[in-house]
């Protein structure tokens, strides 16, 4: 698992004083940075090997300006040419959002997918979500309420 601490910027809030729903997609992408470095250690855009296939965000509670936010990132599934992440956003001891993203190993020059190299699969496996991971998050959230 990777963790990233973020400060909520005033510009990320809306008229109701909470973080806008589109901000979560940006935060989750930022927090996937360490996984991107598994594929492209230098983060060279000219040789970028990933393409976003899908994402989903579930909102559980509002996030407000002020307290910091922790984004937790796991690898949920590793396939032949794709992998899936599971992420959570925590503020003040509460899981406020969760999401999944599917990324595909992609050759932009050939415009086709390819198999994820075994060494990369091995590196991803070090960050696999435990089978009960999602249930643990819900239990932690209930304990903090």
What does this molecule look like?
With 145 residues, this protein is α+β, with helices and mostly antiparallel strands. The chain has one domain (2-131): Thiol Ester Dehydrase, Chain A (Roll). It has helices at 23-31, 33-39, 118-125, 133-143, and strands at 2-6, 50-59, 69-78, 82-91, 94-107, 112-113. Strands 1, 2, 3, 4, 5 and 6 form a 6-stranded antiparallel β-sheet that branches. Strand 3 and strand 4 form a beta hairpin. The longest helix is centred in the C-terminal third of the chain and has 11 residues, at 133-143. The protein is elongated. The two termini are 24 Å apart.
- Main sheet makeup: 6 strands, antiparallel
Secondary-structure element series: EHHEEEEEHH
Rounded Rg: 16 Å
CATH superfamily: Hotdog Thioesterase
Average predicted local confidence, pLDDT: 91
- CATH architecture annotation name: Roll
SSE class: alpha+beta
Instruction: Bin the strand percentage.
Output: 35-45%
Distance between the termini: 24 Å
Query: What percent of residues adopt helix (DSSP H or I)?
Result: 10-25%
InterPro entries: 4-hydroxybenzoyl-CoA_TE, HotDog_dom_sf
Family: Belongs to the 4-hydroxybenzoyl-CoA thioesterase family.
Keywords: Hydrolase
Protein name: Thioesterase family protein
């Amino acid at each position: 698992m990777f963790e990233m601490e973020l400060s909520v910027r005033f510009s990320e809030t809306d008229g109701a004083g909470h973080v806008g729903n589109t901000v979560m997609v940006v935060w989750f992408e930022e927090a996937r940075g360490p996984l991107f470095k598994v594929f492209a250690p230098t983060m060279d855009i000219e040789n970028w090997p990933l393409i976003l296939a899908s994402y989903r965000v579930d909102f559980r509670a509002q996030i407000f300006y002020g307290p910091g936010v922790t984004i937790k990132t796991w690898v949920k599934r590793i396939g032949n040419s794709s992998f899936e992440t599971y992420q959570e956003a925590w503020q003040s001891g509460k899981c406020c959002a969760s999401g999944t993203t599917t990324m595909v190993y992609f050759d932009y020059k050939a415009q086709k997918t390819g198999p994820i190299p075994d060494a990369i699969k091995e590196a991803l496996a070090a960050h696999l979500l435990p089978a009960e991971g999602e249930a643990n998050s819900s239990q932690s959230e209930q304990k903090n309420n």
